[in-house]
Amino acid sequence: MRKILVFLFSFLIGLGLFLWIIKWVGWKEIKEILFTFSGYKGLVIIGITLLIWLVEIWKWKFISKSQGYNFSVFNLGEILFASFAVSYLFPTSFFGGEAFKIYAIKKKFSLNWEENLTLNTIEKLLSISVLSLFLIFGATSFLFLTGRSLGNLEIAIVIFIGILTMALAVFYFKIFKKESILRWLPKFLGINGRKDSYAVEDFEKKIFHFFDFRKNLMWKGLGLSFSANFLILARCWFLLLFLIGKMNILTALAVLFFIYLSYILPFPAKVGSSEIALAFAFGSLGLGAAGGITFSFILRGAEVLVALFGLTMLMKLGIKFLTKNIVDRF
Predict the structure, then answer these.
(1) Is the predicted pLDDT of residue 233 greater than 90, yes or no?
(2) Rounded to whole angstroms, how far apart are CA atoms 259 and 178?
(3) pTM value?
(4) DSSP string of 103-122?
(5) I need a labelling partner for 124 at 20 to 30 A (CA). Which of 76, 224, 245, 319 fits?
(6) What is the rounded CA–CA span in Å between residue 17 and residue 179?
(7) How many CA atoms lie within 13 A of 170 on its CB side?
(8) Are 10 and 92 contacting, i.e. CB atoms less than 8 angstroms apart?
């Protein structure tokens, strides 16, 4: 009951923000821009969205194979689409689709928690590494294109860029030196942790084995993560081109930065947060706030299609897991 109330509360807040931004910008102007987007343009956006997901599934296939598990692409696709549906439609649940993904991998492939954690940690480290680079370039592009004097927002963005850059530098320096991050971090934060732990050593040994600068594993994994984010950037670039008629890579990076920021707020289907973030971004870049809301509508349309497909996978997996639990009990 509590989760349902939190979901409804966050949805109503998001809906309120959504209606407010629509009223502020004006529905007539938004509708005029929206009508210019139709036919093959929509197919291009949906096509790129599908390519993004194919790369994500292949990345998981590559990571699992590197750890000695030959999972099928179809089974991994089921879990990834279902976890996206959970995180996109029900973001107020604990860590959204991440908790479901870990549970589903354990149930589907009979993987213990240690092996499961290793796979998910490698995937997250690859994703965060590449995502951080896109965020840094996106934030820098926004500051360069707007050319405004440093106010509170600009200072916050500069601090954000600095923290991300330092975190990436520390992580890869420790990886290169093969020094334990799980032991160093508590000391850095002034926390007394356990000094000896075989589980920590074994876990980090597997992480170090993957993130070895001398081997192809890390570079191939980063390449797959970069490909997925580059396709997301390409989708952003094409969508801007269709709506505005001309585009450059810096503008696309700046807009992508605000798309990623809108994912922070836990509103179902990003209703409200996406519109506000993109209306602000488009307005600041001189592209018109109405264009930002239209951009958000179209992008959400592609994501909702994926989420609805994921919902069918979620129901399918739920039935399988329930049946398996009943059989195991008897």
Answers:
(1) yes
(2) 35
(3) 0.80
(4) HHHHHHHT--HHHHHHHHHH
(5) 319
(6) 46
(7) 12
(8) yes
